[in-house]
Design goal:
It is built from 3 helices and 4 strands; from the N terminus they run H-E-E-E-E-H-H. It has 104 residues and is α+β, with helices and mostly antiparallel strands. The chain folds into 2 domains: 59 residues, no CATH class; 30 residues, no CATH class. The relative contact order is 0.10.
Length: 104
């Protein structure tokens, strides 16, 4: 199936595999202001060869991936992850409404 067919005939939210392991094309439904569109969904594979996340990470534009790379390449993220693993064994609960910024 090619991208044009997926955009025209694919089901909303369906994910289509690509030739790159862990990289998929996802059809996003139309919204009030935007037509249906395609996005890249990145979902790294686990040791069992299956996607490691329930939904993966949706990348909608080149600008999104550039911004993600910039953040992901920040060396202090590894330091922060090490700190989290040390304190909580790597499990970080999601706190809603919290606005505290942690200095790294």
């Amino acid at each position: 199936m090619d991208l044009t067919t997926i955009l025209a005939e694919g089901k909303d939210w369906d994910i289509y595999p690509t030739s790159v392991a862990g990289v998929y094309v996802q059809k996003l439904p139309p919204t009030k202001n935007l037509p249906a569109r395609l996005a890249v969904n990145i979902n790294p594979l686990g040791s069992n060869g299956m996607p490691s996340k329930r939904r993966g990470y949706t990348i909608r534009s080149v600008g999104d991936i550039v911004a993600l790379r910039k953040v992901a390449n920040e060396e202090r993220i590894e330091k922060l992850l090490g700190m989290l693993e040390e304190v909580q064994g790597g499990v970080v609960p999601v706190a809603k409404g919290e606005t505290t910024i942690i200095e790294i």
